[in-house]
User: Fold this.
Amino acid sequence: MFEPAAVRVGSVDAGPGSPSGGAVLTVTDTGKQITIDLDADMASVAAKDTKVQVSVPDGTIIDATVTSVGAAVEKEDENKEKIMKVPIVLTPDDPAAGGDVVDVTLSATFTRTLATGVLRVPILALLAGPDGITQVEVVDGKKSRLVTIATGTFGDGLVEVVKVVDGRLVEGNEVVVAQ
Assistant:
């Protein structure tokens, strides 16, 4: 039997005296792959080319990359309830990583940076200005002034300032927070 590229024998399916016409061997790719059935509501963190860290049973951390994201499929969880899962395939960045680990349970960590270099203020610093504008009160020494802003993403008690519409607001300014 000949293959156009190197393969790994997964199983020998026939032996001496087996009937002809059946499968002889099952082969797999020689490259290492990690497959994950990810909860469908988490699929947004696993886009193609996303970097992932995988922990193998001996505690070694392997850097890997998402190489394919399948369509959501219905599977049963441990309680026999139907749940939507998205099949994800990861490829280790270093082909030698993980040694000879085959068919074991792994843990994967997906990290997603939502924004970098963002100016944020506490949500409790937001003021409703005239005509529905949003403002913050900036303290300059013993004086304060109102600055009109446009807000973006909210999270962890903070809000992103996507634009300073009127006034000046920079990193390090003190803003008044409601109590």
Observations:
- The CA atoms of residues 142 and 174 lie 12 Å apart.
- The chain has a mean pLDDT of 86.
- DSSP finds no helices and 14 strands in the chain.
- The radius of gyration is 27 Å.
